[in-house]
Amino acid sequence: MNKNNVVPVLRLENVARHYGELVIVEEIDFTLKAGETVALLGPSGSGKSSLLHIAGLLETASVGEVHILGRPTSKLNDAERTHIRRNTLGFVYQFHHLLPEFTALGNVALPQLIAGEKRKTAEAEARRLLTLMGLGERVEHQPGQLSGGEQQRTAIARALANNPNILLADEPTGNLDPKTSDVVFDALLKLVRNEGLSALIATHDQRLANRMDRILVIRDQRLVPAEKTEI
């Protein structure tokens, strides 16, 4: 097969998002290839989160089309969009949003159980992912017994529990100190690459962006390529 003809896992086609007269992003054309990691840069309020929410079918674009695995999504009903989010997309946010009454293992197994997986299988996969994130000795700890970095690594494992094709991450290390941020980002990139995922990761940290395959920046509501820089 000609690699140039391979359908991208994610494609945004002439996407715009407006709130009344307020333009958040416009004329966004973007493709994410299988196995590619892309950094999304931009100051707070530039539209990074909105763009990720559109890509993840959490918001609907005012204009344009979002294609996931080659499938246009604008005319899908809520159940179809939910199915794609559950089975094709993984989400990581700045705050971990772990359930405090569950262990790390329980938090990571939960999305699989909701999807109908057997408990034994779900827990085995959760244990595998947590071990890959360096948390093999912490699986029975509740979030309150974990450090901030461990909580975020647990959240990353949970995002990958249903074996998605695409990881969307919104400032996944933005709430961590620089040293912990490096540890978490190391684990995230290693897991993404080991699992063969594609990832679109919003960050304000140029150092972290430099470690991804490509960098894009939102400037004047539009998405433009950026160069890796020396820090």
Automatic annotation (TrEMBL):
Q: Which PROSITE patterns match?
A: ABC_TRANSPORTER_2
**Can you give the residue ranges of the ABC transporter domain?**
10-231
Keyword hit for Oxidoreductase:
no
Tell me the superkingdom of the source: Bacteria
ATP-binding among the record's keywords? Answer: yes
> Which SMART domains does this chain map to?
AAA (SM00382)
Question: Which protein is depicted?
Answer: ABC transporter ATP-binding protein
Q: What is the lineage of its organism?
A: Bacteria, Pseudomonadati, Pseudomonadota, Alphaproteobacteria, Parvularculales
